[in-house]
Amino acid sequence: MTEGRDIRLSKAAKLVGGELHGPDATVYGFCSLDVPHPGAVAFVERLGRFDPAAEPRPSGLIVPRLIDGLDGTGQIVVKNPRLAFVRLMQFFHPAARVEDDFRHASAVIATDAVIGEPSHIGPGCVIEPGAVIGAGTRISAQAYIGEDVRIGEECLLHPGVKILHGVQIGDRCIIGAGTVIGSDGFGFVADGEEILKVPQVGTVLIGNDVEIGANCSIDRAALDATLIGDMTKIDNLVQVGHNVRIGRRVRIAAQCGFAGGASVGDDALFAGQVGVAPAVNIGNRAMAGAQAGVTHAVYDGQVVSGYPAREHRRQLMVEAACNRLPELIKKFERLIDEKGSGE
């Protein structure tokens, strides 16, 4: 349970836009329904999962509607318990802000780098000439900031992040540990037995409020820019190839890969391990199921799954048919045997 902060349930209800029913207790943090304890608040998304008779019980519950038999527990009724719970978690865990200017003695900072104040530059960081870093940004240990990189205000770069030359990152972005942004795209042309490297002379442009997880790789463009739009959220171990264009508010789960030149519209969703082929266009609000292999265009609002990816309902029909294949083959073999024995 979170230490150092507390809130009355009545205030919490106002904070999350809900209505309190029952006693107005003080809570000091939050808990799960699997490990409930007094002094904490939990959320109930599906009422059937919660046992009113279970003990111990949280001091507060965020619920979609009142639960009978909980006279001693305050209930905050909201339309979306999960969203309300997240807002309350943000109260207990507010985003860390850089209050004091700090430069670790082991950091190597070019004399012409421009760093806003306050900001935090951790141990072992390298900041190359021409870099510009906005105020309120925290650069954690052993990060590398290349020449002419632009990083906005109030960003957080976790340990070991590498931002290579010329990359531009907006405000309030979070970059996970070990991620590399601006590495060369995978561009080669065969000339007989020789394989020529295509110079990757473009850059990467990342919007505001973008979060990129740990150990991702965002390649620079061969020409122009690889683009990631505002408020897009990228999970760990994601590969974004050269000249890929990803829109706003896109959510991408772990181990997805986007080949060079692919484009993604706004508000699209990708489950884990989706692969997108080169130059494929994916529309606004599209969705791709886990391990989908997207080889053709996906239209606005379309849901696809499977390999090769097809419309989700059709993919379910294909899977159902495949499950019947052993039975159908046996029937076919019996028919062949019956026909053969009758001749």
3D architecture notes:
This protein is of the alpha/beta class. The chain has two domains: 7-92, MurE/MurF, N-terminal domain (Udp-n-acetylmuramoylalanyl-d-glutamate--2,6- Diaminopimelate Ligase, Chain: A, domain 1, 3-Layer(aba) Sandwich); 102-315, Hexapeptide repeat proteins (UDP N-Acetylglucosamine Acyltransferase, domain 1, 3 Solenoid). The protein contains four helices and 40 strands. The model has no long low-confidence stretch (mean pLDDT 93).
Short structural summary:
By secondary structure, this protein is α/β, with parallel strands linked by helices.
Properties at a glance:
alpha/beta, 4 helices, 40 strands, Udp-n-acetylmuramoylalanyl-d-glutamate--2,6- Diaminopimelate Ligase, Chain: A, domain 1, ten-stranded parallel β-sheet, twelve-stranded mixed β-sheet
Distance between the termini: 79 Å
How many individual helices? 4
Question: Biggest sheet: strands side by side, in what order?
Answer: 8-11-14-17-20-25-28-31-34-37-39-40
Specify the helix fraction band: 10-25%
Structural class: alpha/beta
Shape: flat
How many domains, in number, for the residues? 2
State the CATH class of the largest domain: Mainly Beta
What is CATH's topology name of the largest domain? Answer: UDP N-Acetylglucosamine Acyltransferase, domain 1
Total beta strand runs: 40
Instruction: Give me the CATH architecture of the largest domain, please.
Output: 3 Solenoid
Q: Give me the Rg, rounded.
A: 26 Å
- Assess the beta-strand content as a share of residues: 25-35%
- Could you name the ranges where pLDDT drops below 50 across 5 or more consecutive residues? none
CATH homology-level superfamily of the largest domain: Hexapeptide repeat proteins
pLDDT averaged residue by residue: 93
Largest sheet report: 12 strands, mixed
